[in-house]
Amino acid sequence: MLLNLEVGNFKSFKNNENFSMEANLKDDTLKENIVKISGKNLLKSSLIFGANASGKTNLLKSLNYLKNLVLESKTYNEKEKITKEYFKLDNQFYSKKPFHIKVEFIENKKIYLYEVNLRHEEDNKRYNFIILKEKLDEDGKNVFDRTKDNIEINDNFIQKGDEVIKELAKKINKNNLFLSNLSTKDFSGITSDAFNWFSERLIINIDGAFGKAYTKNMINKDPDFKKFLIKHIKNADLGDIKTIKLKENPEGLDKGLAEFLKENKDISEERKEKIVQNHILEIKTYHPDSSGRQIEFDFNEEESQGTQNFINYLGPIYDIIKRNRVFFVDELEQNLHPTLLKYLINILSEEKTNSQIICASHCYPLLLYVNSHDESFRRDQIWFTNMRKDNSTELYSLLNIGGIRKDLKIFKAYFEGRFEAFPDVDE
Description:
By secondary structure, the chain is α+β, with helices and mostly antiparallel strands. It folds into two domains: 2-205, no CATH class; 209-330, no CATH class. The chain has 13 helices and 18 strands. The strands form four sheets. A seven-stranded antiparallel sheet has the order 2-1-6-7-8-9-10. α6 packs across α11 (305-323), α7 crosses α11 (305-323) and α11 (305-323) runs parallel beside α12. The model has no long low-confidence stretch (mean pLDDT 87).
């Protein structure tokens, strides 16, 4: 689970900004929205609101940037290039400050703090970028601490037979994260939990291309998911869909793709089967007619876009619940009524799970469910991004805004400009 995230000098984030999933213990409302783990009270969900171009998506991108480095930098050679994502509107800042990110999370009941600073080099340098700082703590104890030219490893985390790890630390490229390199060998003394959090727990969906293939696969293979699916479709009142089935359409597999899969030896047979199944299996929904007969509907052609999106997202949500994952998603509300979006997010509150969902959103009607008689979200679950005068992002929680009475209508106050984070449009 995610505790805290700090990011600086990344896209619209200039100075270090902080995001937290730790619950405010002074607030005793909606306790079902909180889970206690490893002595921490953590929120199951959060919503980030703000005007277009205020930096909501950039927060997700910063963590995704780090995740890709953790998973992939072990393979980078000295000439490997990654994109520059600095704050570009202050040249002195841009050229002198490194990209900074620090993330605190819980994996396998242990609390980890992982911090990385990196700087891009000039074109005539040996490296496109170098790691200036990398640090990992486990339950308050330092596992390793890296500066530009040195990696210090805590001997308490090195067990007999793993001494070779110190040689690895001496030979590592300056553009390889040490945490990434540790994943290439099973070092029993250096925990793999921190790497696994990035590779297995952290899911980030920014471009919306997510859910359909997974949902389709789960319908095919997991009877429990199908029960979960039908239950929530019924609760959401999506046109009286009684059931969902998969049907094969052999013509759904493009001939070019079929030839490619046949000739490509680098793709495993299991992976090829999944690709084929995803193309030839089609979702069919069934609605009752006036006499009660079940009439087949083509999911892609005859169901509304909102119904499709709702069902497609139930796959990932089921996945994060069952696997205790952290799901960052941008604009989950696409083609969904606000009540359906609220419903999707609050599924986590109903389940016994150590999973989380963090959604960057423009669905402001959800603010109607804060500080109201129909409350679904706590104040510490609501965050805002605002553009400062220097065009950098300011990130803050509703909890940190003073003067909010218990009877204040949050939705109305937001549109009156009480919380800023609102577009200043000339009319």
